[in-house]
Amino acid sequence: MVELIPSDTEVLAGLEMGGIPVVTMLSYHSGIPAAYVRKKAKEYGTARLAEGSEVRGKKVLLVEDVVTSGGQISISAHDLRQIGTSIDYALCVIDRQEGGTEALKQNQIQLLSLLTREDISSAIT
Question: Per UniProt, where does 5-phospho-alpha-D-ribose 1-diphosphate bind (predicted)?
């Protein structure tokens, strides 16, 4: 998956919960700092949407395990953009090919994936 990371990425941002182990591994192998993105900002303590590396003013790659509709990526991208984060891409392990790619395009996000449902189905048959 490291080879799929766009060259201008400054921070990898894993979405709660499935994206966190994936982004941790990608950060380790790529050397790119990681952040962990909550579904909504904490209402206490740090009151941050993203923990770990700073995302404000950075070119961020959103990382998720499985993408179906792209809904949570779209929501998180919107929230992160509100605080000054630049997001053009999302990366997932599996694209279930159920409309996520198209939905994300509407939000100016290109989905990159290691595997698709089609890849998995072809390998099984």
Answer: 38-39, 42, 64-72
Q: Please name the fold of domain 8-124.
A: Rossmann fold (3.40.50)
Q: Quick count: other Cβ atoms within 10 Å of Cβ 81?
A: 14
Q: Where are the domains of the chain?
A: 8-124
Strand 34-37 to 50-52 pairing: antiparallel
Enumerate the known binding-site residues for 5-phospho-alpha-D-ribose 1-diphosphate: 38-39, 42, 64-72
Q: Give the pLDDT score at 42.
A: 67
Binding site, annotated residues for orotate: 68, 96
Residue 44 has pLDDT above 90, yes or no: no
Residue 35: other Cβ atoms inside 10 A = 24
